[in-house]
Amino acid sequence: xxxxxxxxxxxxxxxxxxxxxxxxxxxxxxxxxxxxxxxxxxxxxxxxxxxxxxxxxxxxxxxxxxxxxxxxxxxxxxxxxxxxxxxxxxxxxxxxxxxxxxxxxxxxxxxxxxxxxxxxxxxxxxxxxxxxxxxxxxxxxxxxxxxxxxxxxxxxxxxxxxxxxxxxxxxxxxxxxxxxxxxxxxxxxxxxxxxxxxxxxxxxxxxxxxxxxxxxxxxxxxxxxxxxxxxxxxxxxxxxxxxxxxxxxxxxxxxxxxxxxxxxxxxxxxxxxxxxxxxxxxxxxxxxxxxxxxxxxxxxxxxxxxxxxxxxxxxxxxxxxxxxxxxxxxxxxxxxxxxxxxxxxxxxxxxxxxxxxxxxxx
Length: 362
Ligand code: SIN
Hints:
By secondary structure, the chain is an alpha/beta fold. Helices cover 33% and strands 18% of the residues. Strand 13, helix 10 (322-325) and strand 14 form a beta-alpha-beta unit. The structure holds succinic acid. Residues 44-45, 61, 91-92, 124-126, 149, 151 line the site of succinic acid.
């Protein structure tokens, strides 16, 4: 009877070994092969909670902490060695220069370490495109930085946060994402920081790069890239936030029919160092506003002509004679991104020719 038991154990041994190896934790060497990804959590809808599972609007953003976000997606552990850090917890309409500087400095400090391969930033979608472009200009590393959000709060049926976070962590740990600049990853799509914009108040496919196109897709647990930005970014820019504790004030003046210079004059009086004029069409200047813009320029304020249209190049010396007025054309940057580039440009120079060069470089 005892020998029968031994016989059964001997024949079962290979199977037991196989089961043991499947159930046992991965050996250290296998874990080390996974990329090291830090998740910096900043709030937003991805960390939001609603009153019920059907609440997809009117919920509270920025409620769930980073550890709970990570625990909600156990699959993350199979694609990266993940660490979380709650850098702040805000709805992204409250993003400001101080948070940007804090975030950029932390990203740079983490990426300088050889133990970090990539960074994921969880963020509210309302200003994702601004934070992404800011970091695209000031991160001093070619390692991947991926910004992710969600359009539905964590408590909703079919919340998009978990799959978006999973894809973002894979992307941040992927060698394919190295050197591509800051990436925005939601809804299985990868967009570049410079050109992505939020296009819909509530749908999951809100992030688009109109006309110029997305960079690639997340599918089958890996990124698939098809294009990349031609503009300089991250480690190849001239901007450095390491010694900065504030950014120059730049405001946006919106163009519309029957416009007058009231808002412009108020911004100048408030101390604006730069104005983005989000003009109609190709950045046109209404007759009642043009003299006020000129007067502001004479006082040293930098004027950048952008457009409220959302696509296309602002033709330098097109709808206004920028050479005579000493204005800058925003190229294809939308007003909110032109504002970021002008703020950073003003940390380096107030020469309009140099600033124009920057708008054609970044
Ligand atoms: C926010 O931007 O913080 C709220 C909206 C969102 O994340 O979708």
